[in-house]
Amino acid sequence: EDKVVQSPLSLVVHEGDTVTLNCSYEVTNFRSLLWYKQEKKAPTFLFMLTSSGIEKKSGRLSSILDKKELFSILNITATQTGDSAIYLCAVLGGNQFYFGTGTSLTVIP
Amino acid sequence: EAQVTQNPRYLITVTGKKLTVTCSQNMNHEYMSWYRQDPGLGLRQIYYSMNVEVTDKGDVPEGYKVSRKEKRNFPLILESPSPNQTSLYFCASSFGTGVSGYTFGSGTRLTVV
Known about the structure:
The complex is a heterodimer of chains A (109) and B (113). With 109 residues, chain A is mainly β.
């Protein structure tokens, strides 16, 4: 059975902390892995990863994929209260997307 | 503005009364999909469509129907809604077969009583 597992489920940190969110997967016909940020509305796209070992970076956020060990991490440095959200990991296997249940991040001032 | 438009945003209905949630995209995307999001279960795919007149079941298709008569529209139909279909629904679209990532609609919060 195809599955995507995210950890931790929930995280509370103080502003300025660095966090690492994890996504492991078992999906046949892997094509890509994507990270989304969901606040109180629709998910918004962060990164798409298709190759192992190549870091994608956008400001304080970065992500990397390990296709051998079947996982990805999303790092957020110098967290801000605006980073509070649910972070979703999705894997495209064949023509179907599989989502993890998400990691809820709360950043306290 | 490039977007995926869902309607309605909120809907409360009674068991058994047929309803349709509309989804339209203006980006000429081939791939469209419907998800439901439930606490603790994440986003689960209901149906997807790779192009006009091509639809496939996702993980949780029971109780739902879709159609793709035009490229821009992908309505979700609940023929006889039941309380276990109370959920937050998202429509999403992307180029190709989804490899470039989705653009999501704003969501439809459905309550079936």
